Amino acid sequence: MSGHKGGKPSVPTTKNCDEGVSNRSGHRPFEEILKARISRRSVLTGGLALAATAFFGGVGAAQSFGLGGKPGGGGGGPLLGFTPVPVAGGGGIWPRISPEYQFQVLIPWGDPIVPGGPEFKWPPTSADQEQQIGIGHDGMTYFPIDRDDKDCDVEEDEDRDRFFPLSQGRPGRGNRLGMLAINLEFGINIHVFGKPMPESLEDVRVSQHAHGVAIVKIKKKNGAWQTVKSKNARRIHINTPMAFSGPAAGHPLLQTPNGNIPLGTANNCANGVTFWGTYLTCEENFNGYFGAANAWVPTPAQQRYGFSANGFDYGWHLFDRRFDLSDPDYTNEENRFGWVVEIDPMDATQKPVKRTALGRMKHEGATTVEGRGGRAVVYMGDDEAFDYIYKFVSDGNWKSMRALGKSPLDHGKLYVARFNEDGTGEWLELTIDNPALAAQFADQGEVLTFVRMAGDVLGATPMDRPEWITVGPNGDIFCTLTNNSSRATPNAPNPVAPNPDGHIIKITDGDKHVGLTFEWDIFLLAKDTRGTEHVFTDPDGVMADPDGRLFIQTDGGQPNGLNNQMVVADTRTGEIRRLFEGVAGDEVTGIAMTPDRRTMFVNIQHPGNGNPNVTNFPVNNPVPDGETVPRDATIVITRKDGGIIGS
């Protein structure tokens, strides 16, 4: 992969935008509940001990798309047959992978979204960036095209392109041709355009067009994946027209005095996929793109969502009035962000839709599963220290609702979780019909727009940065809680208060995902891996396969000199092996697979924190040259013998 050598950017300042605290409700923190819980029931230690037999799998919407595949030889034998990447021997310039595996770099930041488009030059122009892969590769979904794998090399015919589940269960289809929907979470100014702050609207547009989502068509040819032309390949960014739907659509809180139409999506973190074949992208740290050019006093709602005069130092508000909190013409513009956005990857003519029934928060992801009666259930984490876990349940059977022209994501109930000391919990309905909420909110639209505050009123349990969520085939829900550094102290060894290493919680939801009560337990304390060869901390991305493997990705300072990594766990035995290690300063994130589970897509985000003195990835220089700008990219992982990923 060729890289651009241009002007040497300054060393960026690393900023973890997930470490703030906006919840001042004073509710009993999860740490206290966890302490009591640990005293009552055993915590799984020594890695991932078996909590339930064969409870993991690619289920729900993922399985309906063929993304989970069929069990591939798990049987009763060992699931992890690969040689683990050792702790020592890295260096951070280039990724490391198990010797039984290989990887390819695909769609780095700046590559054209279709062949023949503008090639990467640093710094990019806003016009070029609008036609290129953006920066900050994160959550993604591979949508397999219903084409026989043997026919993938014929002339492209998009009229024949169809998606699973139309071909679910038919082997040999969709493994070499598909649409990849990928979130482009963020890129700091010094990395994107070489300046600490924008000096013009053009600088702002470069940054804005680097954020958002990319939809690209990819296929495997001659053993390698590549992008191919498609009328549906496109960029969706901060200036793309959006639609609102659901209870808060048209609400005064989503209107501005200027009357400008809704535009854009930003800080797209994790993701989800629906049963009907659409992509769910989730807006997380949207507050950081707003600032105040003049005198401004934040409202309680703005404080609760973490808005500040300088934001995250993007400086958009200095040249784009939409992001200036002190501009009265754009009052409420900030309320248009923080939603789950639905995108049709196969139809570029469809406007992305922000589904307000799912609530406004710092959405990490949106994991969909089919509940009792065929109802669509969506689990979501609000990724900030001391914030909450949510679920949404559609009013009816999702197929019946769609047949009537109703979106299952528009009509339903939203709940927030409260955890009890005895291992039980309740889902608290976030409805204006509740007198406690009716006393403080005008209507359901306001409840959903300020859903964090509604959760405060109902006494939801503050958590340690709820991130990715996965659901096993027996219905158990697993949520990664990355850490809570706001409570950490330098000599803090325990996982509770402070919790520098993070943990994973297991929830068993009642009445096949649609009940109002649940049971919970601690599944994994990351601190228990310290001192072992499979050490990892700060669990973030997570995905399970039907054989009982759990893929865990990390986002945080790793012990023993390791970079962020992806480990694989055998949930039956507790064995953990390191499959992949990224480069210095990066985050390993995003997981997608082909239906046969022989190709996995993961992402390297902000390699070297954008510093070319640390790494020139995806250029494999033996020593960083200080000039070749590192670029976020997707990694395509395969076994050399063509086997199932993780085996």
TrEMBL record:
Span of the signal peptide: none
Annotated segments matching region Disordered: 1-26
Keywords: Membrane, Transmembrane, Transmembrane helix
InterPro entries named in the record: PhoX, TAT_signal, WD40/YVTN_repeat-like_dom_sf
Membrane-crossing segments per the record: 43-62
One Pfam family in the UniProt entry: PhoX
Record keyword NADP present: no
SUPFAM superfamilies per UniProt: Calcium-dependent phosphotriesterase
Family annotation (Gene3D superfamilies): YVTN repeat-like/Quinoprotein amine dehydrogenase (2.130.10.10)
Protein name as annotated: PhoX family phosphatase
Annotated organism of origin: Candidatus Manganitrophus noduliformans
Lineage: Bacteria, Pseudomonadati, Nitrospirota, Nitrospiria, Candidatus Troglogloeales
